[in-house]
Amino acid sequence: MKTTRLEAFSDGVLAIIITIMVLELKVPHGIELAALKPVLPVLLSYVLSFVYLGIYWNNHHHLFQATEQVSGGILWANLHLLFWLSLFPFTTAWIGENHLATIPTAVYGFVLLMAAIAYEILERVIIAKQGRQSFLARAVGKDWKSKLSPALYLAAIPLAFLSSWAATVLYIFVALLWLIPDPRIEKALERRER
Amino acid sequence: MKTTRLEAFSDGVLAIIITIMVLELKVPHGIELAALKPVLPVLLSYVLSFVYLGIYWNNHHHLFQATEQVSGGILWANLHLLFWLSLFPFTTAWIGENHLATIPTAVYGFVLLMAAIAYEILERVIIAKQGRQSFLARAVGKDWKSKLSPALYLAAIPLAFLSSWAATVLYIFVALLWLIPDPRIEKALERRER
Amino acid sequence: MKTTRLEAFSDGVLAIIITIMVLELKVPHGIELAALKPVLPVLLSYVLSFVYLGIYWNNHHHLFQATEQVSGGILWANLHLLFWLSLFPFTTAWIGENHLATIPTAVYGFVLLMAAIAYEILERVIIAKQGRQSFLARAVGKDWKSKLSPALYLAAIPLAFLSSWAATVLYIFVALLWLIPDPRIEKALERRER
Amino acid sequence: MKTTRLEAFSDGVLAIIITIMVLELKVPHGIELAALKPVLPVLLSYVLSFVYLGIYWNNHHHLFQATEQVSGGILWANLHLLFWLSLFPFTTAWIGENHLATIPTAVYGFVLLMAAIAYEILERVIIAKQGRQSFLARAVGKDWKSKLSPALYLAAIPLAFLSSWAATVLYIFVALLWLIPDPRIEKALERRER
User: Fold this and answer.
1) ipTM here
2) Residues with Cβ < 8 Å from D54, sequence gap 6 or more?
3) Which of the four, A30, A123, C52, C92, has the lowest number of CB atoms within 10 Å?
4) Is the pLDDT of residue D128 over 90?
């Protein structure tokens, strides 16, 4: 079974998730610039989630480029990841409308954590299918980023109860960490092509 | 006529159906954890429907991998299936918002039943087109799952009037039954490739 | 320029139009069967528009199978068609919520008429690009359906002022007329393949 | 890395953006023709944004036809463009509901400006990747349109404070300017094929 249709379906779901978040930007009733003020925090939380979804799309893209075959397990591990990502519009709107209140900020981090775990599961299921000696297993190697990120989300959740701003800075920091797709896979892919 | 564009269109519709269900998770006005309480049943019904749509996507994927040609009849049988699946967000929100009240639970089962019948029709139309001796006809063989599921949905609908929880347990049971894509098609596909 | 990306984009837009119509099926507040009563006319208008969009998707599919090259003119004629189709959710909800009131029924017919004209323009732009002697031009020939449908829509619009039910019967009649994709193109395609 | 999946994802996002704008066309409560009156300005702003998104889709289509390889930088420049385009439904609804009030009209222009800059960045990142001597670099040459448009948007923003109608005329003028995809790329592509 080839990866094309799984990739197309995932692209579709990710494209919709990233776009329906914008429906939370409620059109203001006023016409003065101040009417945009309540929209601003929603917009900023949208930007953060947009970047996160972009990161997931990029890494998903890389992951399946290094995947040769799809099994039932991979299909469900992928749907599991899409499930957690589909909750982003909900948590994004919640922090946006409540200016990073404690509980919404912690819940936002919880969904980030579950998505990270789901991605890790997906990666492991693919590697298990392809074997420890496969191209992907060697390319990923000791994946410090996907070890560090869940740890940081886990730290951010209790931190939100002390300072939701500090937790948010952690979320932004992890986003910056991932902004560039995994250079090891990219390099390994280039080497393979030669 | 090739199957690619029909698959792409179905993927698009399924991706949208699965994602717009999340719009029913209304952002709570409160900022305490208790504010999530009314969201929880909606979330749980979302999980169930997400799994069901994942199952349909997986089986659809398998079905069309074993399909070589598309006719007008297949196009409409496919649209008929997509129609019933498109009602999932509606029935999902209805049971979620009413904590599995009797009528919503029965209607949820009715839409499940109609989708199962539509899938069965689609399978038969494809087999009729490809001939009783085709690869797909032999792979599907005596399809006990697609015989059992409508029977269980049919049982669940009156059961909902006695106990909507019992009916829901039946829905979950059928979902678990289907969670793994039909191994017969998968095995037959593998055999063909050899 | 190949047709694949234009087809993919059109599939995406059509898949979204067909699916967001379901957002108009507002979840009832009640939990008894009677609560579904106000949903019923919206559901029926949804079925009609679903069939219409299915017809457009099928014919679009056939049309571009017989198209070899895409020009700037074809791109815009296609977007023009998608524009009118994108108004279907609006007019569908309007007739559904108002039980086929006069003006909504007439406006529904007007949008059907504009979509039919847009499809006709698209077909002509493609034929103009490929030449009068092209495969498509010969396959379409004297296209009585696309001549009759706009005439029937045009008749239905004033008819709505006498009886919106009669106008609706006409809309249903045209839908039935088109339900099967153009057999001439299908036959010609089959002949070409031989 | 090939451009197919990036194009498919962008198509998906653009298809959704173009279609969810129609959700802002609120179904009128009345059933007389006058009930459509408040919908009209929203419809007109929808037409303008539909044309703009069509232009971006067409040019994006051309741009990636002349692109051979995708890098991390191109992926993010593309997501950056999609971000600004995703704000179109918001600004479109705002001007539509407020009959081109000053601030909404200026903000509409600001988002147009940012999208134009994002497109310019994307084009430059692609050219930088492919080299100054690449096919695309030579095809684009001195791109007067993408120089003129941001200048016109920049002029329109302060102009909106004098007359929001004059600013809107400028937006329409730029749309007409771009309506036809860049003939230089099209011609160069044709030449290459020979």
Assistant:
1) 0.86
2) C75, C76, C79, D18
3) A30
4) no
